Amino acid sequence: xxxxxxxxxxxxxxxxxxxxxxxxxxxxxxxxxxxxxxxxxxxxxxxxxxxxxxxxxxxxxxxxxxxxxxxxxxxxxxxxxxxxxxxxxxxxxxxxxxxxxxxxxxxxxxxxxxxxxxxxxxxxx
Amino acid sequence: xxxxxxxxxxxxxxxxxxxxxxxxxxxxxxxxxxxxxxxxxxxxxxxxxxxxxxxxxxxxxxxxxxxxxxxxxxxxxxxxxxxxxxxxxxxxxxxxxxxxxxxxxxxxxxxxxxxxxxxxxxxxx
DNA sequence: ATTATATGAAACCAAATGGTTTCGTGTCAA
DNA sequence: TTGACACGAAACCATTTGGTTTCATATAAT
Lengths: 125, 125
What we know:
2 copies of one chain form a homodimer. By secondary structure, chain A is of the alpha+beta class. Chain A has one domain (1-107): Orthogonal Bundle (Arc Repressor Mutant, subunit A), CATH 1.10.10.10. Chain A has helices at residues 10-13, 17-25, 33-37, 44-56, 78-92, 96-105, and strands at 31-32, 60-65, 68-73, 107-108, 111-112. A 3-stranded antiparallel beta sheet of chain A has the order 1-3-2. In chain A, a hairpin with a 2-residue loop joins strand 2 (60-65) and strand 3. The interface between A and B is large, with 37 and 36 residues.
């Protein structure tokens, strides 16, 4: 059993906005540290530390190639997040109030909502 | 427009394990601070501060009733998390490796996996 | 062989975080 | 009215966090 020595948990790893941006950046391309750090307003070393935290959480995989270390997304640990979320879905599943958010944000899970005919309405009390 | 003064964002709010436990606890029942704090190995004041952070993130609603303040889950901001996650789903959607996690964790999104007949198989290379 | 590049490690620092104890105040009960 | 209860605010503290700069080392290029 591998047991990836997860010193940092996923929840903490994604708490930082820089790290979330890193995950997006490394989602489809593999990149070396120097190139990565060009996308951020901080030192290479700082970015490197963020990458280490992501790696500890298993969210990113590093591969040494010559003198550079390339990083890429490893999305598997996000499953834990999804599972955690799924617990709460039963609490909003029937809530009209969520609709508001759907509308405000226009898109959810890649699906865009379109105008409906207000078939469901608040009773007029 | 209400604009809930979100000083703390959702990602940071759920980063702490105590706060995640709080959300679960307050998911179905509304509870006053003192009762809530009995579930945690720390002072009432500490729990109170966690509740404030959750409230600032909009994840919990407080209602004053007499001398007590009752808290309850407000799941709406979790939408943001779900949306964030949805971005990454396209990166694991086709990955066999996720299957491993499904099996290991037995359950995903409230659906339990059952034995299949291995209709899909890895080609034998 | 020498120089330039890519990187991590280390030492350091300010600010945020997660906790404590103490105190003041509003509310309920006798 | 006098207490007991529920709570938040404040002051305080240790540790963690997110950043810096400097230095050492491995690899690549000339």
